[in-house]
């Protein structure tokens, strides 16, 4: 069992029931979630010692968010109580050709005001094996960006492997700001996860003369991008999920990985996911599956297959959290996608 630390914002999610549009809704379904919190829950479900680092307000809503993590055995002892509010996001779940829509209400949230002095990073990273963050956290505020770098420095000082999911969010910051902040943070990163949009918007990499949306040439585009990223940053692994959005209810799902040293490239099995129950948290469940596979000692191909299967299953589960077990994932990765009733 590995000790894995994730750091970011956990939010209150208010989503419309039954695929309603915002204007139709008379009530909202309540969940809690957020990029790194979702990763922590998955890893705890897989049996790892997982600690989530964040700040929440010292009020009942903040404690509800903490309780949501504790319910799934995520460590919460390093969560700071400070600030005025828990961030909120509203989700209008799409269907068929109508896309989902997210509205953020997270300005001045607790994590946006947190500073390194609020956390004992030496204690947090003591005996830790892995640290994971996303590009969402430094996008929340300048203070959160500084906090993220402080955490990365502390992780590296303790010999901890660092992974990032680039996760560009255009509603939080511009591509120009993202590139300035995130390029600096890449010096601490060993394992980088991000699709072609993330690579371009967050790090400025483009796939040469290859169109990554043109069917057979798609994988060549990723090879090109991954080689550029490995050349500049020396990542141990570069990974991307590959989503084919035929509609909001029907996606193709696979992923690819490159060994940054040998430049070996591998494309996973592809899943057809339809109907999609909830795609929010799909990327986080993928990142968690990958981290789990790598800390378990799997080779990069087996780790990627575990991650893709885990994330495919997440699309069938309501809410941000991927509430599947290792056995569930291993069964699907092993070829059992029948969905037959287990008796």
In the CATH classification, which architecture applies? 3-Layer(aba) Sandwich
Name the CATH homologous superfamily.
Answer: Ribokinase
Estimated share of beta-strand residues: 15-25%
Question: Tell me, what is the CATH class?
Answer: Alpha Beta
Low-pLDDT regions: none
Q: Could you please say which CATH topology applies here?
A: UDP-N-acetylmuramoyl-L-alanine:D-glutamate ligase
The rounded Rg comes to 19 Å
Blueprint (SSEs and pairs):
Layout lengths: L2 E5 L3 E5 L13 E5 L1 H11 L3 E5 L1 E2 L3 H11 L9 E2 L6 E5 L8 E5 L4 H4 L7 H4 L5 E5 L1 H5 L1 H16 L3 E5 L9 H11 L5 E3 L2 H8 L14 H16 L3 E11 L2 E10 L5 E3 L3 E3 L8 H14 L4 H15 L11 H8 L10
Parallel strand pairs: 1-4, 1-9, 2-7, 5-6, 9-10, 10-11, 11-12
Antiparallel strand pairs: 2-3, 7-8, 12-13, 13-14, 13-15
Helix pairs in contact: 1-10, 10-11, 11-12
Organism: Hungatella hathewayi WAL-18680
Pfam families: PfkB
GO molecular function, one term: kinase activity
